[in-house]
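=== RUN LOG ===
request id: a7f3
mode: sequence -> structure
chains: 1
length: 158
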Amino acid sequence: MFAENLYKPNPIDDIECVFAHRQHTVERRNANEIVVEVSGKWDTMLLFFVWEEQMNCLHISCLINLVPENINQSSIFELLALLNEDIWVGYFSFWEEMKMPVFKHSVFVDETEMNLIGKLTQVMDVALTECERAYPIFHAVLKQNIAPRKALLPMVMM
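=== RESULT ===
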């Protein structure tokens, strides 16, 4: 019978160190959950990290601080579909409870990985980059009632 590995790394510890080093506001909610406040180009974003120990999976959510004036679900869902077509890692969703767009991604973590902090930093940076890129588009659709395809035009021209 094989001895079970008693120590399983918790990537939340690593994430806490990375963001503390970057001097961001970090709130450790419990052993498996952390929230980080990041000042972006457009607004403050909240990054949520949840470690699911049984699955060895880290879930990342980046909340975009934009509450729509009027919720037009068909425009929101159309925009989500259009944005998600061009994303290789993660996806955008709409957090119904908070009435805000959110970027989500999950990563399986193997305790034998040599460069775990590098991998986690890369995923965090992708989440922040995607949210910064999409913020003006979400703003146009959610706050100015611009049609999703029209809001995406400046992004296509980049």
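=== NOTES ===
The chain has one domain: 11-156.
Helices lie at 11-21, 73-85, 116-144, 148-156.
=== END ===
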